[in-house]
Amino acid sequence: MLVSYKWLSEYLDLSKISAKELSDKMSVTGIEVEGVEVPEDGLKKIVVGEVKECIPHPNSDHLSICQVDIGEEELSQIVCGAPNVKAGIKVIVALPGSRITGNQKIKKGKMRGEVSNGMICSLQELGYSDNVIPKAYSDGIYYLPDEAVNGTDVFPYLDMDDHIIELSITPNRADALSMRGVAYEVGAIYRQTPSFNDEPLMEDMSETASDYIDVEVMDTKDAPAYQIRIIKDVKIAESPLWLQNRLMNEGIRPINNVVDVTNYILLLFGQPLHAFDYDKLNSKKILVRRGNKGEELVTLDGEKRELSSENIVITNGDIPVALAGVMGGADSEITDGTTTVALESALFDSLSIRRTSKEFNLRSESSSRFEKGINQATVGEAGDVAAAMIAKLAGGTVVSGKSVGSKVTLEEVNVSVTIDRINEYLGTTLNEAIISEIFEALGFNYSFNNGEYTVTVPPRRWDISIEADLIEEVARIYGYDNLPSTLPKGETVAGSLTDSQQLVRKIKGLLEGSGLSEAISYALTTEEKSSQFMMRSSEATKLQWPMSEERSTLRMNLISGLLDDVLYNTARKNSNVGLYEIGRVFYKNEDEAQELPYEENHLAVAISGNQTIKDWQTKETPVDFYTVKGILEGMFDSIGLKDVVTYEAVNDYAEMHPGRTALVKIDEKVIGFVGQVHPTIAKEYDIPETYVAELNLQAIVEVSGHSFVYQQVTKFPAISRDIALLVDETVTNQALVETITMNAGKYLQSVHLFDVYQGANIADGKKSMAYSLTFVNSEATLVDEEINQSLTKVEKALVEQFDVSIR
């Protein structure tokens, strides 16, 4: 919200308050000020000039030689290229040595052989944006009013000496999206009551608005308030300079005297209005309803819009003539030929307006205010003031009365709060006199009884509805900087991490110790990526109004986000990538589509490139399945789960390589998977060979509650025995190790696979696997007989279960 200091000064006495002081005070009372800008800053030696003579340049077909009166004894010759320059107009002149926008210095010089003493300026050259300059002057110079005095500074005529205060308005303070709202706010700060000088309404009692038009609202939920005023015999022209200046300083382009009034009232009241050309409606009826499928409307921007039942439309009883609260229709716009104006003042459903502006990408000052909230008490008043101003500026006559389709019945809002409650919240010792004075400054009526205030909240402050809101108002006006600063009192309790937090922190340390870096990916992704690498079936959770298709669906896996990170790195020549992420995925039961998604904490890993880099003594070694599996095994070992975690080869993951993927289980319960990304998926992501794993971290936390049991290091020696087996190639290492462990006896300490061989001298379909078994007795020295007995049992069990040959 841009606030003109000059405009605000019309409603309050700010003669002893500078714009800088005002902005600082507003910032500490709850409305943040982004900055204060003076449009004339950086500009100098720019004056009013009058073109006395204008002739074509002899050496150019687009330049003109002008003799300009700049308040000196002699006329000044200036060469101008503007197509609309002519004799008899007052213009903006930059003298030699002046500065225009961009800190550009103007010098005396020659143009095509003719002397030019300065420059006749357009508004763009004074720093105005193209989108606020009146279209009549957008491609040329700007005309000043005839009363401008030659040779005087141009800035006061354009209100460029004003201070424009930019406010950052939070959604709960939509009342400050109007000059009246800001005036009440500033009045409360400086203990003043704003005085508004609205144009009085004079009506022609010989006719009534109902003679011209009848208004019907099909559903009052869509339009709780809707009324039309008629202004006849208007003459469309440019608005007076003061109104154009005010709109341009507020970032709005002046159009004509009728449309400019509606925009002025939008800024003054925060009430959007719309003016229809009555004759172009071709009807004496206005019907407010929802759009029908297949209906079309050409809006003021010239675009054809296909309507739906989501859109509230204004119709002439038959066809749409405006998108309610968003944009009017081109067929009923105000033009130079308009003589009768139908002025709409209404209140529309905020949700519907938001959906419509989002659907058509039509974000406007009007739609923004309808979405955030409107002062329901001034819907009619804003229309009355606008009608009076149109009658004055366009020479029209206001027909008596209004055609009303719906009307809001305001209910009194009373909120109670006690002095003790206020002081308890704020840590203050405020008394009745101070608090009462604050409520009076805010313009809130109240009653006080036995230490309790009952405050009647005015409709202009629809954000206040509960006790805490009143306390906030007291704090704001009293001054946040006046609240006491105290340290917390009472006993402190030492904080600590929960068991699950400690485990997650330990897992992070282990993974980082393995050379991985933590990544944080977006929880929102595309629908396709969200459904990849899933560990269970689930419905996708989609946003109703996503900002983009790339961020439209909540993820159901972490791997797709990590693969995007791998692509980002490899595209920048960082080919050795090791990443992990801990985050939530979002599942939804298929039979309960409306239920909120269930969140589950997951851990994912992605590695690509080389695990060792080539140097003078080491060969380059690429990552493989066993690299990522080894990282997981090291993690499980360190958190005490190595003995309960098993792996099972699987080939039914569509996104994973069928021969290099395994399920990860704890006590036969699947908690994740590990393996290589399928080459076709890797190609889709445009990444090299990549290995990934995703685990249900929640399940790991649930089974990791047991404590470690520490044993004294034995003083007796360990004995190792090797055993080589010839087995079918389908037999897994895990199955063999389990059998060895179950039959080797209580002295077995570890089993280590040190060789796997297939090739020469080994039959097809077979493989040779060699293990080293280590035995330890913590109470005595083991003898060969005990070891041999254990090996015999192991060999017998292996032969019976897997038909192995002992080599």
Automatic annotation (TrEMBL):
Database matches in Gene3D superfamilies: 3.30.56.10, Bira Bifunctional Protein, Domain 2 (3.30.930.10), Ferrodoxin-fold anticodon-binding domain (3.30.70.380), Nucleic acid-binding proteins (2.40.50.140), Phenylalanyl-trna Synthetase, Chain B, domain 3 (3.50.40.10)
Cellular component annotations (GO), alphabetically ordered: phenylalanine-tRNA ligase complex
Enzyme class, broadest EC rank: ligase
The organism of origin for this protein: Candidatus Enterococcus dunnyi
Residues of the TRNA-binding domain: 40-155
Subcellular location: Cytoplasm
Sequence positions that bind Mg(2+): 463, 469, 472-473
Gene symbol of the encoding locus: pheT
Assembly and oligomerization: Tetramer of two alpha and two beta subunits.
Protein name: Phenylalanine--tRNA ligase beta subunit
EC number(s) per entry: 6.1.1.20
Essential cofactor(s): Mg(2+)
